[in-house]
Protein: NADPH-dependent FMN reductase
Amino acid sequence: MKILAFGASTSKSSINQQFAHFAAHQFEGDVNMIDLNDFEMPVFSVDKEKEDGFPDEAHELHEIIEHSDFLVISMTEHNGSYSAAFKNTLDWCSRLNNSVFHEKPMLLISTSPGKLGAKFSLEAALNRFPRHTANILGHFSLPSFGDNFKDGIINKELAKEFNDLIENVKETLAKIQ
Structure:
């Protein structure tokens, strides 16, 4: 299984990148960790699209997603929503082809330093991503990353909830593949 994973952040020290890496490695397969910094695009506008067409990075990301079997995305949160960089990436990719996620099975997760675990960004993604053909098999929010994660989830209740989710997603993946 080809697993594509990334944190929806451009921070060089992204905790969501760390969490996506951890989550993706709970599954059997080849994990392709990408960095949104490698897909930097100009700020989306209809005028920019009309004048210059679509950035090569949008085409490249579409192709990577299309050739993956399973997606693990960890949502960061800036002021209660997606990061501007991720939103811009989503805008460009959805204009290129509304089927951004190509109906690939997805684990959607989030974390933050705070007690809410980027839940507003996660909720926005849960609402928005299916409109772009995401097949979300499960979701999880990890609060207080610094207190609850050290090479894995250290809070026993959260670890159990996460591990149960992973097992459920594995069972679903086995049925659909």
